[in-house]
Amino acid sequence: IPNMADPELFHPRVADAAWRKRWGIPVGHRVIAYTGSLGQANAPTTVLNFMELTHKAKLPIHWVLLGEGSYWEEVQEKAPENTSFFSLSSKADVAFLLGGADFALISFLENIPVLGSNSPNKLFDALASGCVILTNREGWYSQEVERAQAGKMVNKSTLILLLTEYLKNYQLLESTQEKSVEMGARFALQEWIPRWKKFINA
User: Measuring CA to CA, which residue among 182, 90, 84, 85 is closest to residue 133?
Assistant: First the structure.
């Protein structure tokens, strides 16, 4: 059974003043969330490079990282000013963060083929929450995300151009977030449980 979205817990929510205060987000900044494990397989150097690129470009972007992992402290120590780090405490906290975030980064090493065929839980959480998906590598999920117009695969050369486009065009950002929710609904637990039961009982 693959990972699936849980729209009862993960869904869009208003990024109000209390939400922004909880995550240390400056007024007027869009948010890129990174949640869950930050180990070697998650391409920590890529995550750090992306954060530095947005900082150097002086984009009104703030990164919020909520998680843990073997590279967590190293990335936190090297991270630029436009970042906030929080230790992973509960799934409810992840849902609270993603619900108000504008984007979510799904990062994996590019030179390990199996990482392009996995089904990361953080992807489905972010989709159900209405985040624009940013991913750094080829794989079935990057293809599905782009096909659904729910996000883009990015690299060091395209990240700033893409984010600038979204920052200038709120309608594009909003429509992409809506497509993300729609894609998440196709992978919802409530959608697939009856199918599994029917298959098991056949």
Answer: 182
DSSP state, residue 115: G
Q: Confirm if 146 and 154 have CB atoms less than 8 A apart.
A: no
H-run or E-run covering 103? strand 103-106
DSSP string, 11-76: ------HHHHHHHTPPTT-EEEEEEEE-SGGG-HHHHHHHHHHHHHTT-SEEEEEEEE-TTHHHHH
CA-based nearest residue to 167, from 29, 53, 55, 51: 29
Q: Domain 17-200 carries which CATH code?
A: 3.40.50.2000
pLDDT at 201 over 60: no
First to last CA, the chain: 17
Tens digits of residue pLDDT in 106-152: 999 887 766 666 778 899 999 999 999 999 998 888 999 999 999 99
d(CA 47, CA 52): 9
Give the SS3 label for residue 109: coil
- How far, in Å, CA of 60 to CA of 82, rounded? 9
